Amino acid sequence: MDRPLLSRIRIYPIKSLDPLELVETEVGVYSLRHDREFAMVAKDGGYVNGKRTGRVNQLKVDYDLSKQCIRLGDRVNGFTREFHLVDERIELEKYLTAFFDMEVRLIQNTQGELLDIPGASSVTILSEASLISLQKDLGTHGLEDLRLRFRSNLELAGAEAFWEEQFFGEPGTGMRIQVGEVEMIGISPRARCNVPPRDPFSGETDKTFIKSMMRSRAGSLPSNSCLPHYGNFYHLTVNTYIPETETGKRLKVGDPVRILGPVDLTRGQGGVG
Questions:
Q1: Cα–Cα distance, 269 to 40 (Å, whole number)
Q2: Percent above pLDDT 90 for the chain
Q3: How far apart are CA 209 and CA 183, in angstroms?
Q4: Could you give the CA distance from residue 164 to residue 176 in angstroms, rounded to a whole number?
Q5: Three-class secondary structure of residue 213 per DSSP
Q6: Per-residue model confidence as pLDDT tens digits over 224-239
Q7: SS3 (DSSP) at 89
Q8: Which of 230, 52, 19 is nearest to 123 (CA)?
């Protein structure tokens, strides 16, 4: 019998850049504290992200959030500059503008509004076994390579591959789940874009990646998965919503994970409100 537990926590303080791995974190407003708190924005108002340019994969970042500082550099030469995220914002934006060869502003939001699906998906979840299943079929990609491609917040151990797909039903049906002291609502599988095919370090695109992944997903689909109802097999991780009632609670590596029961999403977000 599966005894899933939380085995990995990752946040992405600057949207589209490197993750920060934690052993414990606090729930913020509809999100994890500091996850996607900052984002790079181009002159046209769109995000500077992996959908726009593979150059984001070539920028190496290290965080010291206690001091609100980051170190930046390229993958080849390593860290070359350090900035305070608030006090040196102008200097940081000049650095990013030069690195990307386009005008870049850094914006900040602590209300979860810079997430990929704000107001609907607070965190993404998958199991380590799902990554292992995919890695075996793809062959040339290691587990950490795949983690960086799919950029999940929470990873589970002690579960079979794609066990997390029990967190959603057919469109319109979600699932209440408990991770430690935090209650969440599984909403839907995460449809993927053109980011996972990019090498997480060079930004180069593997043109065979999407078809290979879809074949792998089709061949390893659990019998109880509702994924076929979502149109195609180019999905991985589960979109999960954290209600406002959970703000301030904490998640820790080792927390048990259990399924509480289905919820009707057509009544509102997670059936709430």
A1: 28
A2: 92
A3: 34
A4: 12
A5: helix
A6: 999 999 999 999 999 9
A7: helix
A8: 19
